[in-house]
Amino acid sequence: MSDANQDPVAQQVEWGALEATRGSNFRTHRIAKSPDRWAFKPTPGVYTMLVVAWTFAAFGLLLGLLTIGRLPWWGTFVAIGMGTFFGAAGMILLRRIERPFFDLRAKRFCTEPLDEGVPFAELHAVQMAPHRVEAPNERDRYWSCELNLVHHDASRTRILSHGNVAALRLDAAEIANLLGVPLWDRTATS
User: Fold this and answer.
1) Cα 25 from Cα 28, distance rounded (Å)
2) How far apart are CA 56 and CA 84, in angstroms?
3) pTM of the full predicted structure?
């Protein structure tokens, strides 16, 4: 880890989250390494949420189909509607799962497969920026941590965000080591 207070780029860079409304309160990704690619893969917790959503979807649709003609039309409609709702929620969740990766052959960071990416040579540091995810209800608010790549011009590219700071710090240290840049971590001061 490097002292960001001594770096002129760190004096210019924003320390708030790029996407403060995003993040989770648990570990959503882990690094999967291969010789030519380091990719952030979803953790089992993410897939558990999908399985729960699709289980409710299947149950609602099955219940709706089994009750055709046995319940008033609105009962069947409600059951099929619930199934459709949970199925759609699962599909939205699946589409929102981030899958950023470091292409080691091309020496670029990409946020999606067809993304042109950011060349490693443009990167100055790896930044951990804690942020509070707000919700209307106080008990639903939580802390998350955003992992960013800082460019030489002090602009930033978001990698991902999740709530397991210790795991994210280990990932961040590995990424900083891979890129040969410092890790700036402000999580201890949040």
Assistant:
1) 9
2) 9
3) 0.66
